[in-house]
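Tip: read the tokens left to right.
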């Protein structure tokens, strides 16, 4: 799983913000990348 794949899935509405946050928790993407994908600050 890469940043590009996660962003694509989010943009296509296959993933929601909670799923993207899980990728941050697992260390796949950073909190900054979460914000770049969702437009929301990671909490």
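Filled-in amino acids:
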């Amino acid at each position: 799983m890469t940043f590009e794949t996660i962003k694509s899935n989010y943009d296509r509405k296959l993933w929601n913000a909670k799923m993207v946050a899980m990728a941050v928790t697992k260390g796949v993407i950073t909190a900054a990348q979460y914000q770049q994908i969702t437009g929301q600050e990671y909490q």
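The mean pLDDT is 97. The CA atoms of residues 18 and 24 lie 10 Å apart.
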